[in-house]
């Protein structure tokens, strides 16, 4: 008799459990769809620089920064009139040999004999903060430069829009860089990367981080 009552009670609860599970599934699908759309739009709007040092020794890390400075100086000179990510990528591909030569010359002038490799394409990035602009983790197109064994810490920045020259300590990104970013994003997406102190925006930002890191862990 007791077993029968339990069965009847469960049969009454079961429809609610099914509804809850379907609702959770719907919310998850909507969240994943939102993350995919926003992540794709952000990735389509920026081109980044990714430099990996030979090792974590002080000498190799200092060398990485010297390579960074020379590459950014060259990039700033040739890409100062670029107005789109596509234009920047085309320019970087056209001058890929020059980027490699510049990095190699810095390595040699500092008495190292590391190989230098230059690649242009998608690369995984963690969440990074550039002054008052924040970019969630994910896959972004980048100029990737590896030095020697490439076993040291990475250095990342955004080459377009030009955020590499931002004084992060001041927490200010030039209005010109923000405007270029804004022109390639809708209002909500731009708000997402420039206003994460807002609780609602912060939640969405963390949502993107969660699913992107989950996706990275599954790959």
Order of helices and strands: HEHHHEEEEEHHH
Largest sheet: 4 strands, mixed
Helix content: 55-70%
Task: Give the overall form.
Answer: elongated
Determine the mean pLDDT: 80
Number of strands: 6
Rg is: 23 Å
Distance N terminus to C terminus? 52 Å
SS-based class: alpha+beta
Report the total helices.
7
- Tell me the β content: 15-25%
Q: Uncertain regions: pLDDT < 50 for 5+ in a row?
A: none
Q: Give the spatial strand order of the biggest sheet.
A: 2-5-1-6
- How many separate structural domains? 1
Task: Describe what you observe in this structure.
About 60% of the residues lie in helices and about 20% in strands. The strands form two sheets. It has a four-stranded mixed beta sheet with strand order 2-5-1-6, sandwiched between helices. It is an alpha+beta fold and about 220 residues long. The chain has helices at about 1-45, 60-80, 85-95, 95-110, 175-185, 185-195, 200-219, and strands at about 45-50, 115-125, 130, 135, 140-145, 155-160. It has one domain (about 45-219). Helix 1 (about 1-45) crosses helix 7 and helix 2 runs antiparallel to helix 4 (about 95-110). The chain has seven helices and six strands; from the N terminus they run H-E-H-H-H-E-E-E-E-E-H-H-H.
């Amino acid at each position: 008799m007791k077993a029968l009552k339990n069965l009847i009670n469960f049969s009454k609860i079961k429809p609610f459990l099914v509804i809850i599970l379907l609702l959770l599934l719907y919310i998850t699908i909507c969240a994943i769809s939102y993350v995919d759309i926003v992540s794709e739009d952000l990735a389509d709007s920026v081109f980044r620089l990714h430099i990996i040092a030979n090792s974590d020794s002080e000498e190799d890390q200092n060398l990485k920064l010297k390579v960074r400075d020379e590459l950014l100086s060259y990039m700033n000179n040739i890409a100062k009139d670029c107005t789109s990510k596509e234009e920047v990528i085309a320019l970087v591909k056209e001058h890929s040999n020059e980027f490699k030569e510049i990095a190699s010359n810095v390595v040699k002038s500092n008495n190292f004999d590391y190989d230098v490799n230059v690649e242009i394409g998608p690369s995984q990035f963690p969440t990074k903060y550039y002054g008052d602009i924040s970019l969630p983790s994910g896959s972004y197109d980048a100029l990737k430069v590896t030095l020697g064994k490439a076993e040291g810490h990475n250095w990342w920045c955004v080459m377009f829009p030009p955020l590499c020259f931002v004084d992060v300590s001041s927490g200010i990104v030039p209005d010109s860089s923000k405007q270029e970013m804004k022109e390639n994003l809708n209002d909500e997406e731009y708000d997402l990367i420039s206003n994460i102190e807002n609780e609602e925006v912060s939640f969405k930002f963390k949502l993107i981080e969660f699913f992107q890191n989950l996706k990275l862990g599954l790959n």
